[in-house]
Structure formats: C-alpha cells, structure tokens
Design goal:
By secondary structure, the protein is an alpha+beta fold. It contains four helices and twelve strands; from the N terminus they run αβααβββββββββββα.
C-alpha cells in the first residue's frame, strides 16, 4: 500500500513539474548591429558601406530588453521599462499578444509615427526544422528556419523541446517548444533569452480594457511594410532606419 502511494505521489509530482515548465517569464536581450545590417543592403556600394561603418563607430550596437510571458493559453511580449546598455534613438510601442486557445492575435505596433492594433486569426508560421542543436540559457535547443520575403530576412530560431510552449519572442511562434533565440540575417539582429523563470501567471496575459490605435488586419499590416521597404530600396536607403528590423 505504501509503495502504491509513493508511485502515485511520484507520478503526481512529475505531472506538476511538467506543468510548471509550460508557464512563466523569459527575459530577452535584443541586439542589433547596424553595420551588419547595412552590409546586407545589396544596393549600397563598398564605399557607402565603409562610410557607414566609420560613422557608426562605437554606436554600432543597439540593445533592448524584452519580457515574454507564456503559458499554454497564450503569450505576451513587450519591452521592459528599464534602461538598457547600447544606443537606441527610437522608442517604439511593440506589444505582442497571442491567444492560443482562441487562435487569435492582438498586436499593438508603432509604424511610421502611427499606432496600429493588428487583430486577426493566428496562422502558424511555415517553419523548417533542422538537425542542429545548441545550448541557450541552460536548455538544449533545436534549430528551425523561416524566411520573411518582404523584409528579405532569413530567420533562425532555437527552441527548447523540454519547455512545451508554442510561444516565442517578436511576432514568431508555433514550434514544438519555447523559442529561446532568434537570429535574423546571420547576426544582424539577435534576440536571445538571458533569464527564464517558471511560475504561475495571473493577469499578465490579459488584454487591456482599452487599446489605442487604428485597427488593421494582418494582410494590411504586411502590405504597409512591403510598400515602405520597396520605396526605400528604390531610393537606395536602408528602410530599417524608420521601421523595425
């Protein structure tokens, strides 16, 4: 009888421990290298790229800190209030909500001086899962890849299979494990987990009662990005001086 009770307790603890790893808070460092970004602009001449590298000098790297709250129900990703190291001249509103139960998204995003509320159904990104593995924040992660054809970005994600959550930083999600790192265009921008805290969430995933901004669907938001990127490429100007990379 005692042996059976012990087995039941161990099984219950295993279920509890597993559940605890599906919910919590992740701190991410988002680091952008403006020199690497400009090097990938094919329309820029070698002289222009060298001039940009000289102009950036010691302010090449921009760093911000973000928080991701995650659970089986949904996720929320936003910039932390704290001041971070590095140089950043643009403070933007970028709050990303995912409702996995109802399969909807609600994103509050500043774009070219105006705030938009992107509301739509969730559409799972078309990830390609690869065989590579590496350690991120103490978790063995698998590699996945996706391409953003509008921004011309190859995005590599590293996800932890031991954390059974669909969530991820930025606007990305949908892998069989929590995304702990994103690498955009070979190091031009890296978003990597620096701290993971497993805990029970209360109101962190709740939507505000009032959200200010012009409502728009996902397709409309992507069309605005595409129009801006094409215009700036035609002008031979880096479009990401004015919008999020």
């Amino acid at each position: 009888m005692k042996k059976m009770t012990l087995i039941i307790l161990l099984l219950a603890f295993g279920v509890w421990a597993k559940a605890q790893k599906n919910e919590g808070e992740v701190t991410f460092k988002r680091t952008t290298s403006w020199t690497k970004m400009n090097d990938q602009m094919t329309f820029l001449s070698k002289q222009q790229k060298e001039k940009n590298a000289y102009m950036f000098g010691n302010i090449d790297i921009s760093t911000q800190t973000y928080t991701l709250f995650f659970s089986p129900k949904g996720s929320k990703y936003e910039e932390k209030e704290e001041n971070t190291n590095g140089y950043s001249w643009r403070k933007e509103q970028f709050i990303i909500y995912r409702d996995f139960e109802n399969e909807t998204l609600t994103d509050v995003i500043d774009f070219l001086g105006k705030t938009y509320v992107v509301e739509d159904s969730l559409e799972r990104p078309q990830w390609k899962i690869l065989n590579d593995i590496k350690d991120v924040a103490g978790h063995i992660c698998m590699k996945a890849q996706i391409k953003d054809p509008i921004k011309n970005q190859v995005i590599v994600a590293w996800f932890a299979q031991d954390i059974k959550a669909k969530a991820g930083p930025e606007r990305l999600w949908g892998l069989p494990g929590l995304i702990l790192e994103l690498d955009i265009n070979n190091g031009a921008c890296v978003i990597s987990a620096s701290k993971i805290e497993f805990k029970k969430l209360t109101t962190e995933l709740d939507l505000p009662k009032k959200i200010k901004g012009s409502k728009i669907k996902e397709v409309g938001y992507q069309q605005m990005i595409e129009k801006h990127v094409k215009e700036k490429f035609k002008e031979e100007v880096n479009p990401f001086w004015s919008i999020r990379y």
